[in-house]
Amino acid sequence: MFDRAFINSIGNKRTNKLILLLFVDSVLHIERAEKQHAGIVQCFACNQLGCAYDGTLLTVVPMQISDEEYLAEAPKTLHSSQHNKKHRKRKPPTLVPPSRPNITRFSDDSVILSWSHQNIGLPVEFYKIQYREVTNSSNGNDWQTDNTRISHFTHSYQIDGLTPNTYYKFRVAAVYSNKDNKQGKSSSKFFLQKGSFQAPATPVLTDVEAISTNSVRLSWTWSREGGVMPDGFYVCYRTVSSAGSYEKAIVAGGAAARSVVISHLLPDTAYEFKIWAYTAQAPSNFSKIK
């Protein structure tokens, strides 16, 4: 007798409150037992001579389920999923703009811009240079955009065709991998003065050393020779087979710098390099090409 119900020895199955009882070969099998089924189990054996019986105490120990198993098996309601989806907001992409550019006079009608960019946020695909004349009008002139796409690893550029004895402002716009764009802060007013200025002495390019398949290290010397102190140095480079304009790279470290690594070069390709010193108003002559 189990839970006030009889089970015969022929192998009958009886479902009682979701519990399955099976009596085979004098062995009682109990499946899906719950705590409420704990109690006395009595066994009866009868024949023509009479009946014998015995009993025992049945104890049910609940199965322990870990937190991980519970969370994995816990039902997730449709209401909760829809609620989270409804109120979940996408974080907008981070567009980090270029820095305010530094301006160096290169000639009576040209300047060189240099800027920096932090390697955070969305990747930059290329840069564009924008500039405008600054007049006494409160609105001034509209911004003009140079046509050249400047590669993402280049942080300097030369603007030609400007008007001497004119005030200008410049800024750098970045175009990102999602095709969005953002302008950096504009420069202070820069007066492009016509005339000659005392320039720093010309540096001497002493060595060009390949340090990988796509980068080289340039070294140079510089002596003041009674001239003015430079603000820093620029490197110009291009492939030997090219007749186009030079790429320009500003050297970090200012006037104290005596070497720089130029990267993003094409492997198995011959390049030519030259360097010059600069101040805000005048560049030196170019060094000899190496």
Report on this structure.
- There is one protein chain.
- With 290 residues, this protein is mainly β.
- It has 3 domains: 1-89, Sandwich (Immunoglobulin-like); 102-192, Immunoglobulin-like; 204-278, Immunoglobulin-like (Sandwich), CATH 2.60.40.10.
- It contains 2 helices and 20 strands.
- It has helices spanning 67-73, 78-87, and strands spanning 13-16, 19-24, 27-31, 39-47, 50-58, 102-107, 110-114, 124-133, 144-145, 150-151, 156-159, 166-176, 181-183, 190-192, 204-212, 215-221, 232-239, 247-250, 259-262, 271-278.
- The strands form 6 sheets. Strands 8, 9, 10, 12, 13 and 14 form a 6-stranded antiparallel β-sheet that branches. Strands 1-2-3 form a 3-stranded antiparallel β-sheet, with no helix packed on it.
- A hairpin with a 2-residue loop joins strand 4 (39-47) and strand 5.
- 18% of the residues are buried.
Describe the protein's topology.
Elements lengths: L12 E4 L2 E6 L2 E5 L7 E9 L2 E9 L8 H7 L4 H10 L14 E6 L2 E5 L9 E10 L10 E2 L4 E2 L4 E4 L6 E11 L4 E3 L6 E3 L11 E9 L2 E7 L10 E8 L7 E4 L8 E4 L8 E8 L12
Antiparallel strand pairs: 1-2, 2-3, 4-5, 6-7, 7-11, 8-9, 8-10, 8-12, 12-13, 12-14, 15-16, 16-19, 17-18, 17-20
Which features would summarize this protein structure in a list?
290 residues; 3 domains; Immunoglobulin-like; 6-stranded antiparallel beta sheet; elongated; mainly beta; 3-stranded antiparallel beta sheet
